[in-house]
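Work package 3, deliverable 3.1, input record:
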Amino acid sequence: MHEMAIAQSVLDIAKQEGYRHGLRRISMIRLQVGALAAVVPDSLKFCFEMLSRDTIAAGAVLQIESVPVVARCSACRELFEVENHVFLCPQCDEPALELVSGRELSLTSIEGETGDSNDADENPSGAQHSAGQ
Amino acid sequence: MTQMKIPVVRNILQANDRLADANRKVFDGAGIFAINLMSSPGAGKTSLLEKTIDALAGRIKMAVIEGDLQSDFDAERIQRKGVQAVQINTEGGCHLDGNMIQMALEALELRDVELLVIENVGNLVCPAEFNLGEHEKVMILSVTEGHDKPLKYPLMFQLCSALLINKIDLLPYTDCDIDVIRSSARQLNANQAIFEISCRTGDGLPEWLDWLEAKVRSSRGK
């Protein structure tokens, strides 16, 4: 259950960035998670939901994008996608020199509302534009 | 009220990675070669450590950090061998992290230590994600766990530079096929050193000790 530690980290980063950009509520957090990362998305979402209660990220949607495992061949130096955990080049049968992607655990963006609630009387979005159409 | 999208692009584990980097600097500054020893519970981490301590006694000065959910039985086992050992209890936490190692290092006298073994919490999943600052990750798989484990826990096998297949004295009593372990481990990490050992009989331990000693010497030669 290291998802709890990862969820805490996601929350810390999201809150930090949210405050820095003057968000009063965070509604969406986008993550990239490599296919090789030992992370269970449902478990991560569950932990996040528990930890984010009573914070500006409460109720935020975690959108998790999976990143395929890609490696570079130690012989031909070409990139190949690792399927079924075979880290051998499909062309040369030589081992992977390096992992190019697949271990990502990154937060790529957050979305939310800025300003205070007194701004709520702004024009509904699109109202001004539709007048000119 | 305005909706706003903020691009961030930050590594979620960066806090841990920073601590791991700091630990690594401590190791390098003190001339210590550090390994992160991982396996499932009961695969033989502490037994391997005891055997390794006995064999390297008088040749390489060791220290041990013991990670466990509860209890300090393992640190006591190591201390009985006359080696410095500090126990970390994770109180249910499934892995060690960079911060825990940083704190444990404060309790160790690092002078003259050449090899630090960090025995992680018994678990084939979570410890793989958390760097501790170690130079090499090493794992044990015991034959009683079955030959399907490499493909069930690919990240762990992919990251470890050495795999010790332990309890080979029990092979006749299991359906474990070592060739299957070897071929799937090779598929995940063709550069991995594989040792077939029995901590009980001592079989295969000399090859492991040679590998370890060479690593310690070459790291200190730098």
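The helical segments of chain B are 14-30, 45-56, 73-79, 98-106, 149-152, 154-159, 178-188, 205-221.
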